[in-house]
Amino acid sequence: MKITTFACSAMITLLLAGVAPVTFAHHGWNGQYDTSKEIELTGVIKSVQWTNPHVTFKMLVDGGTPTEKLWTIESNSVSALNRMSIDKTVMTVGSKVKVSGFGPVAGANFGLFMNHLLLPNGKEVVFLRGAAPRWSDDIIGNDDRLHGKVVEADINKRPSTIFSVWTTVYNDNNSHGMHTISGAAASSSASSGMAAGAPAAMTPSYDDKGAVIVCGVKPAIQEMGSPYPVQLIDQIAKDKTVILKVEQDDTVRVIHITGTPHKAVGAPSLGGYSTGVLDAKKKKMTVTTSNVLGSPEVVYTETFELSDDRNRLNYTQQTSNSAIVRGRYWQYQPGASVMPYGCTNAK
C-alpha cells in the first residue's frame, strides 16, 4: 500500500530568509501515527469538520461501556478529496461506521489517520490515493485527477498560452513539489529548505490546548511548492498586470507587466513585489520578485513556460543568493478550477 503525504499535514508558518528550495514544514503525521500497519475501529460519528488542511471528525468507540473512547480521526485535505469526487455528504453525525487507518504511536492520544471508511449502506470510501478497496466493491473515490489521468486528448483544445488553470500530478515528484533542476549540489541546510546563512524557521504557534496552529499566513513565493492548482489570469489589457492564484491558503499575487527593470515598491509584504516580462505569444513569462516579508534583500527569479504539447506549465525559481535552480510542472486538466481553500484549525 502506498503511503501518501499529499494531504499536506499541518503546515507551520515559516518566514524564511532566502529560501532556495520552497518547502513546507509538516507536523510529523508519520511520527504521530504508526504507518507500519493499519487498525480498524467501529464507532459512531459525533462531529465532523470538513475543512482544509485536513478533514477531521470525532468518533465514539464502545460508547456506554467501560472501554468507551472518543477518537479523533483525520484524513486528507478537502482540496484533494474534491478532486477524488469525495464530499462531506459521505459522513453524517450519528452514523455507525467502520474506519481503517494508521493508529497512534505508543504514548500518543487516541488519534487515527483514516485511509478507508465503510458506511452503513455498505459503500466504501477510499481516502488514500493509490489504495485498493478494503471491504467492498461498491466504492466512492477516484484518484484519476490526482494521478494526471484526466487529459485533454485534442491538442487544439489545450491552452495556447500560459493563461489557464494548472493542476498538480501527485504521483510524479517533478510535479508534486519543487525539485532541483540545475546548479551546485544542495547543502544540508538548503536541502532542508534553508539557504546557507538563513535564520531558523520561526517557532510554531500553539493554541490554548497546545495544538499547533496549522492555518497561518506564509510568503506567497513559498506557496509555489504547494500540491494544489494554480491559475494565471491575463489582465494586461485592463491594468498591465497578471494575476497568479494559488489554491493553497487562497494566495493571490499581482505581477506588474512593466517592460522596465524591476524595482521594489512599498514595504516588505507576504506577496512581495513582482514585475514580469511576457513574450509576444504569451507562452513564457519571466518574473522578478523582491521585498518578500522575512527576506526583503533576496530577489527571486521565476519562469512560467507552456510546454510544446500545451499540456504542462513548466516553472523554475532561483534566488539571488544561490546557484541552485529549482522547479516543477503543473498539468492542464479540462474542467479544473482553483477552489476556495478556507483553511481552519482543527478543533
Briefly summarize what is shown.
The chain is mainly beta. The chain has helices at residues 29-32, 78-82, 173-176, 188-191, 236-239; strands spanning 11-12, 25-26, 39-50, 55-61, 69-74, 96-102, 111-118, 124-126, 139-140, 165-166, 179-182, 230-235, 241-246, 251-257, 273-278, 284-290, 300-306, 312-319, 325-331.
Search tags:
347 residues; mainly beta; OB fold (Dihydrolipoamide Acetyltransferase, E2P); ten-stranded mixed β-sheet; five-stranded mixed beta barrel; 5 helices; elongated; disordered N terminus
> How large is the radius of gyration?
22 Å
* Whole-number count of domains: 2
Distance between the termini: 29 Å
Side by side, the strands of the main sheet go 10-12-13-14-15-16-17-18-19-11
Q: What is the mean predicted local confidence, pLDDT?
A: 84
Structure description:
The chain is mainly β. The chain has two domains: 33-140, Nucleic acid-binding proteins (OB fold (Dihydrolipoamide Acetyltransferase, E2P)), CATH 2.40.50; 155-331, no CATH class. Helices cover 6% and strands 31% of the residues. The protein contains five helices and 19 strands. It has a ten-stranded mixed β-sheet. The protein has a five-stranded mixed barrel with strand order 3-4-5-7-6. The protein has a two-stranded antiparallel ribbon with strand order 1-2. The longest helix is centred in the first third of the chain and has 5 residues, at 78-82. The radius of gyration is 22 Å and the shape is elongated.
